[in-house]
Amino acid sequence: MEPLAKGRVCSVERTLDILGDRWIFLILREAYFKVGYYDQFIANLGIATNILSNRLKALVDNGIMAREKDPHDARRIRYSLTQKGLDLYPIILALMKWGDRWLSGSEGPPLTLIHKGCGQKLSPITCCAYCKAEVTARDVEPRHN
Amino acid sequence: MEPLAKGRVCSVERTLDILGDRWIFLILREAYFKVGYYDQFIANLGIATNILSNRLKALVDNGIMAREKDPHDARRIRYSLTQKGLDLYPIILALMKWGDRWLSGSEGPPLTLIHKGCGQKLSPITCCAYCKAEVTARDVEPRHN
């Protein structure tokens, strides 16, 4: 993408610079399901090896995933999420929630998440950390720094 | 992208099928800033007219934005977010929060959002709608339906 001519400087764009590819999101989704081996990513995503290698390298270079030797088999490499990668989870949850609500059709959502803390089905909401109220687009006003 | 060979059916992927383009996110970001006119999108994003027309059409076709005549000037068209579009806001907030935390550098976040409900700077967190606790990647277990 061309640089913005007169764009707003914004963390949304900076984040998209790093995540701006569907494969990245799908690799991350698998990683949250505890997938960590190259061959598992291939099997679960049907992704071409060159694309997978390239995207894993980008994730490691950006500090989102770490590359380490399997403790049980030093010839195997395992990819795992760093804290920076774990912190992307709210983005995945927000993508999933919207798809559940607007794209599921009569069959309902294809996957349920259980919140281990309370044992209930997870319905994620976005809240204000200060007052804990749910936040919608209408509740927010921008202030440029 | 090729269809997944053995993929998990998942709302993340369905959502990315619709949003899978950085321009879409940036147009949405502008729309949350109340930008609604074609020439405003061009000026703010430096986007090519053919790309903008194509993405606005996709957003309207998917029910995310609505195309209406400007009440003050019937020759002008205004684009506005539908409820389906407003519901994408948590995705934008999650992208922004991650960028604020991990990509801001010493200057700090470029934009502050104010939560109108309590008047404080908005720090968005993802919570469980049932127990209201903050949810991280480690607190969730998948269950396939």
Summed up:
The structure is a homodimer of 145-residue chains. The first copy, chain A, is of the alpha+beta class. Chain A folds into two domains: 11-86, Winged helix-like DNA-binding domain superfamily/Winged helix DNA-binding domain (Arc Repressor Mutant, subunit A); 93-139, no CATH class.
The CATH architecture of the largest domain in chain A is Orthogonal Bundle
Biggest sheet strand order of chain A reads 1-2
Strand content of chain A: 15-25%
CATH superfamily of the largest domain in chain A: Winged helix-like DNA-binding domain superfamily/Winged helix DNA-binding domain
**In total, how many beta strands of chain A?**
5
CATH topology of the largest domain in chain A: Arc Repressor Mutant, subunit A
Question: Percent range for helical residues of chain A?
Answer: 40-55%
